[in-house]
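Re: your question from the hallway

Yes, I did run it. Sequences:
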Amino acid sequence: MTAANIGADVAVERRAQRLSILALNKSFGPVHVVKDLTIDVAPGEFLVLLGPSGCGKTTALRMIAGLEVADSGRVILGDTDVTEALPKYRDVAMVFQSYALYPHKTVAENIGFPLKVRGVPLEQRSAAVRDAAAQVHMEEYLERYPRQLSGGQRQRVALARAIIRRPSVFLMDEPLSNLDAKLRGYMRAELKHMQHELGVTTVYVTHDQVEAMTLAHRVAIMDQGVLQQIGKPREVYDNPANLFVAGFMGSPSMNFIDGRVENGRFESDGVSLPLLNGAPAGPVVMGFRPEDATVVDPGMGQFDAKVFTAELTGDVTLVTIVIGDKSLAVKMPKEYEVDFDSAVAVSLPLQNAFLFDAHTGNRLPAQFALPPGQ
Amino acid sequence: MTTDDLTQIPSRPTGIARLFEAPQMGKMSPAGCVIVYSLLFIWTGFVLFPLYWIAITSVKLPIDVNSGPAYLPWIDFTPNLHAWRDLVVLEWAETLKPYRNSVIIAFFSTIACMFIGSMAAYALARIEYKPKFGTILMFVLLMAAASVSVGVWGVDWRLASASAAAIFVLLARALGRRFKRSVGNSDILFWMISQRILPPVVTVVPVYMMFQSVRLLDTQFAIILTYTVVNLPIVVWLMYDFFSGIPKDLEESAQLDGASQFTIFYEIVLPLARTGLAATTLLVMIFAWNEYIVALFLSTTKAQTMPILVAAMNAGEKGVLWWKMSVVIIIMIIPVVLMALVLQRFISRGVLLGAVKG
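Structure:
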């Protein structure tokens, strides 16, 4: 599916603009933070830039905003090349991780500031402020100062300030990371709803893969300044392009077993599995997700193991098992109970297991041979 | 098990030790209270007594001043407004002139200093400068060469400085990129504050000669200019700190909201640096108001300031006129006290509360 189709199925407003970044590069001194980043964001699309801290995602966002100058590459917004434009001339609004509210201005003045600097007359402005505040349910707090608000309320004010002038692009830099877990879940839903309503092209930076999965039309995963994979959340989750993506998406993360391909089989300590099409011999890593495997009685699965711990997290029981010196996680139903140190086996639908090149980290096309009956 | 079964640790010490322990966290012990408040009381007397002494001296007759200490009006001596009448009524024109000079000089030098200094400090806090070490050295050497050629070989100063500047521009363009070592903002900041290392007495003679050569001696302008230059390092140094403390996010957010650099400075940065502005203004104004040595050199009659007038009371042909001096000092203190009261309400903490984080 191309990016253009994705934008089509959300409510696209007339203002929604395409955002393209082409081969962006940025270095801070000797550190190459963003390397040849190329992403095309469809009008009205919600794109999430996901990656661990220091992967260059915030720098990429700041280059789109114009707060950092790119060393090379282009930023194109709609039909305009804005690579050289100052932030105030780009039609973008940004929500900062710190909210960046003006502490000496009231909520109403904060929200109305983008219109004030554009010389919108007071009457029109206060009407717009009330509208924007209503959209984030903050009408009753207009006369307060930011210091009198809670974290979630400040976050809403920051959002209202971003939506008041109907920008072509929203940029959000980890806007939910300063909220507590419960509020974060709530604001996440609000945010998704609001973006859908407004239909504004959005680029959202986060290191939280749950946020990425739930909010995004498409996720772009970055590591060490390089784009690893871009696609719908489900595609990225089900078909990781490499070890990094496979390990980053999902919680608990994917289980990895280091091994070798020998004589058409995957061989590791205590694990030996047949492969279908000829994978080249050499070191590989096998991966499977905790929820795809099940813990079964010894001898009933693909490989034997020993239980290390079993933790009830509420909705599932997370079983940690050990094979040799490797520990693996398996999600079991919450009713499941097992003694520590007992001998078990792992049963795995092998169509859900992945094989990666141990050197490059890239996904190998090789598939495991399914035993009869699977 | 009930709470009665629990072992109790003694909640408070007993006896004399009780006096030395705080009843709660965040409170002082009784003994501490006594010691601290006695010290504060003594210090208050120490600070306020000279003011009281000046106040009563201003209403004493010369005989009361000279016949030994007299402390209490109406008991030790009879208050008399003769000194006030002399200075405020009879010689008002002569008192007013230095007074007006002082007000004008302090006001304008403070305004100029705050205006230039805060902008310089903001630039230093937000823009990264990398002047090349070699370029600076080249500039200094060329200017030194120009000075030597004027002083020693008698070259016309216009010719010398123009050619030095021209050579500098050409060389800087040609060689600028070759210089590797550069200095940063912190070096610039240190250079600024280093301007205050020399005591004023050392620099005041060259300053005097400079103003003499441009015929600006004994003018308010010369003193305003000198005070502005002398106080600039303090303003830059203090305001730099205040501006650095403002989260950068706020300014970036304002940029994205569409504000221009000057809108950001006046709408966002200055209101948030209000505490610093008020404190620095007060400090700089008091420096200018109290300054003595520069004013002594640069003014003779027309531009004379209050400190000079006070000092002059010390050197009259009739001996030291303590009563008049006290009146002048009281008049001199009033504006500073008023200013401090006005600015004091801005000097409160917590302006940045609620800007960032939850």
